[in-house]
Design a protein that fits this description.
It is a single chain. By secondary structure, the chain is of the alpha/beta class. It has a single domain (3-124, 170-242, 298-385), classed as Rossmann fold. It is 40% helix and 15% strand. The protein contains 14 helices and 9 strands. It starts with a helix and ends with a helix.
C-alpha cells in the first residue's frame, strides 16, 4: 500500500453525513451523532469563566458545533451489533481526519474491530468553519505578529488555537475536561447497550496519538464509573508528562501561546491562589482534576502516578520516536517512572526524515516502500496488542 495514494482515496470518500462502503475493502464508514449531556452543568460552569476572545466573539458555551456533532466509525462491512471497539484519539489542533484514515482502516482490518474516530473538544468538526479558513485567518496572523514581537511561527494553521490559549491558558484544561466528560458519556452509551452499533458490555480499547495520548492517560487514571477497568491503551508519539512536551510549532500553536500555557500549568495551576480560585471545584474533590495534575510535572503526585502505571503495565504500551521533539521519550519515562517504563515503553526510529506531526511523510524523498514498512511495523504492534 502506498500511504499517500490510499490517504487520497479514503479522503475522497470520507463523509460525516452518510454511510460509506469502502469498495476495495470489507469495511464501511458509518456516521453517528453525539450530543453531550454528561457533565453539561459543570462544563457550562467552567466555560462561563472564559472571556470571549477578539478572534472569536462567541463565548465557548455558545459554540453549538462543539456541543452536538457527528463522528465516524470504521466497521466490518454489514456488521449489525459488535462487541469490540477501538477508540482512536487524535492530536492537538487537528482540523481533519486525513492522516488517520489509513490508521483506522488498517486497525479495523487487522483486528476485525470497529474503530471510532472521536473528536476532542473544539477540534475537527467541533468548531465554526472560519477557524480553519485561510482567507478568514490571514488578517489575524498579521495582527498576531504585530502584537507579539519576534514571533516567527504564527501561521493560519495555528493562529486560532494560539489566540484562544494565549488569552486564557485555562482553556486547555477546561476543553480537556469537556473531552473527558464526552468520553465518559461515549463509554457509558456503548457499555450499557445504548449505542446502536454495539452490544452491552462491549470491550473498548484505546489507540491514542500525541495530545490524545495525554488525554487517554488522564482518562485511564480517573477511570469514571470504573468503565476502563479492562481497557487497553496503546500510545504512539505520546505518553509524555506535560512538563516535557513542546507544543510550539507552525501547525500546533505559536511560541508565545505555548510559553503562556506551559508557565500557567507548571506554576499557577498547581497552587491555590487567585488563579486557582477561578476553578469551581478544587482537585481534592474532583477525581478528573486530580488525574490531570498527576500528569503535569514528574515530582507532583509522583507516587500516585507511578503506582497507577505499575498496576496497569500489562494493559498499556507506548511507542515513542527518537527524533520526536514534541512528545520526547524522556517525557514518557518521567510519566511512567523507570520501573514501568521497562515494560510499557519502546523507542523506535525511522530511516528517513520525519517529525512528530508527520511520522510517515510523503514529501521528504522517502520511498513509499520505506514509509509503508515503518507504518506496518507500528500498526502491527498496535493491532496485536489491542
Amino acid at each position: 500500500m502506498e500511504i499517500s495514494i490510499r490517504t487520497k482515496q479514503l479522503k475522497a470518500i470520507f463523509s460525516y453525513d452518510k454511510k460509506i462502503d469502502v469498495e476495495d475493502r470489507p469495511l464501511e464508514i458509518r456516521p453517528y451523532h453525539f450530543t453531550q449531556y454528561v457533565g453539561v452543568k459543570e462544563i457550562e460552569q467552567f466555560q462561563q469563566l472564559l472571556p470571549a476572545t477578539g478572534f472569536c466573539s462567541t463565548p465557548d458555551n455558545s459554540i453549538q458545533e462543539n456541543k452536538s456533532f457527528s463522528y465516524s466509525i470504521f466497521t466490518p462491512k454489514g456488521a449489525r451489533k459488535l462487541d469490540q471497539a477501538i477508540l482512536l484519539l487524535h492530536g492537538l489542533n487537528e482540523r481533519n481526519w486525513d492522516k488517520y484514515l489509513t490508521w483506522a482502516e488498517y486497525l479495523s482490518l487487522a483486528t476485525g474491530k470497529a474503530v471510532i474516530l472521536f473528536p476532542i473538544a473544539f477540534h475537527m468538526n467541533r468548531t465554526p468553519n472560519n477557524w480553519y479558513n485561510p482567507r478568514a485567518l490571514m488578517p489575524w496572523v498579521a495582527k498576531r505578529k504585530q502584537e507579539v514581537e519576534h514571533l516567527n511561527n504564527s501561521t493560519f494553521v495555528n493562529v486560532a488555537l494560539s489566540y484562544r490559549l494565549s488569552d486564557t491558558p485555562l482553556r486547555f484544561y477546561i476543553s480537556g475536561k469537556e473531552s473527558l466528560f464526552n468520553l465518559w458519556q461515549l463509554f457509558t452509551e456503548i457499555k450499557t447497550g445504548q449505542h446502536p452499533l454495539f452490544k452491552k458490555d462491549t470491550s473498548i480499547n484505546i489507540f491514542a496519538y500525541s495530545i490524545g495520548a495525554f488525554l487517554s492517560q488522564i482518562l485511564m487514571i480517573a477511570n469514571p464509573d470504573r468503565l476502563l477497568d479492562d481497557s487497553k491503551l496503546f500510545m504512539f508519539c505520546g505518553g509524555s508528562i506535560f512538563s516535557q512536551m513542546d507544543g510550539s510549532a507552525r501547525d500546533i500553536m505559536d511560541y508565545e501561546a505555548y510559553r503562556k500555557v506551559k508557565n500557567y500549568f507548571l506554576n499557577n495551576f498547581l497552587v491555590r491562589n487567585e488563579h486557582h480560585n477561578l476553578l469551581p471545584v478544587l482537585y481534592q474533590e474532583d477525581f478528573m482534576e486530580k488525574a490531570f495534575k498527576a500528569m503535569i510535572r514528574p515530582n507532583v503526585m509522583q507516587e500516585y502516578r507511578e503506582k497507577f502505571f505499575e498496576k496497569v503495565q500489562n494493559r498499556v504500551r507506548i511507542i515513542t520516536l527518537k527524533k520526536d521533539t514534541v512528545m520526547p521519550t524522556i517525557g514518557a519515562i518521567e510519566a511512567l517512572g523507570p520501573k514501568s517504563a521497562k515494560t510499557i515503553l519502546e523507542e523506535l526510529d525511522f530511516p528517513y526524515e520525519y517529525s512528530h506531526q508527520n511520522p510517515f511523510p510523503t514529501n521528504t524523498g522517502a520511498s513509499p516502500e520505506s514509509l509503508y514498512t515503518s507504518f506496518e511495523s507500528i500498526f502491527n504492534r498496535v493491532a496485536n496488542f489491542l
